[in-house]
Write a structure and sequence with these properties.
Number of helices: 3
Number of strands: 0
Strand content: under 5%
Helix content: 40-55%
Number of domains: 1
Shape: flat
Length: 74
């Protein structure tokens, strides 16, 4: 794959080529087992990247909320 952007007639912003990813059979748990949490969420190595990003966001928000709650109690 090259980094050449394609400009289709009538569009102002050229499209970048689609990233390459491997399709994983067996659901999100199989994808995480194959590529890891960060590989799936941040590097989009398979089709479950957006789903894992939402899970990672929920975990981060929960930890942040817990830390803020713990600071407020003291």
């Amino acid at each position: 794959m090259g980094d050449v952007s394609v400009l289709i007639d009538g569009e102002r912003i050229p499209r970048r080529p689609l990233p390459q990813f491997d399709e994983v059979e067996g659901g999100m748990l199989a994808a995480v087992a194959k590529d890891g949490v960060l590989g799936t969420a941040l590097e989009d190595k398979n089709q479950y990247g957006p789903h894992m990003m939402i899970v990672l966001l929920m975990v981060t928000a929960t930890l942040t909320g817990g830390i803020i709650l713990a600071i407020q109690m003291f």
